[in-house]
Amino acid sequence: MKKIITTIVSIFLIMSMIQAQDIKLPKPKKEGGMPLMEALQKRATNRDYSSKMLSDQQLADLLWAANGINRDNGKRTAPSARNCQEIDIYVFMDKGVFLYVPEKDLLKQIVKEDKRKMAPRQPFAAEAPVLLVFVANYDKMTGMDKDAKEFYGATDAGYVSQNVYLYCASEGLSTVVLGSIFRDEIKDLLKFNGKAVLGQPVGFAK
Question: Which domains does the chain have, with CATH numbers?
Fold first, then answer.
């Protein structure tokens, strides 16, 4: 009987591991890189991408630069109104759609299929190996009315986007911010309470 129970438990654990496709990222590198003034000089928009995937380290560094934790008190690399930290980053890749969890250096899988083509209105953006979508999570914006949520969600997403631009400039990657995305379709797919504000593909130039 014990053998049967042990076998059942083992099968359950194996199935759980198979189903769990979360990605544990390496610790981000928080030193080095291009000097700020030089990165600002090189900041640019690029709409041509190769299919080459970023390394796990580059992905970890990119997401940390975008809106990671940079202090022991839990505050972020990007500012937010009332420190709501409401901007969630969803990462669209060929492996599926993932939510960035900065506290754990983790990409939590939300959708298993490649959905890069359904998020941007411009087809070129789906060619990038990584498509970031910045979502203003209204559950984190307590005490704000609708107008405030709209306004601060937009401004705070802009700070995150600029961090991505500067990281890409420093690392020789291509990016462009997208205001034209399928917001309703993204919300239906990911089931959040809030608004998909911006998209931003990231990759290597062709």
Answer: 22-203 (3.40.109.10)
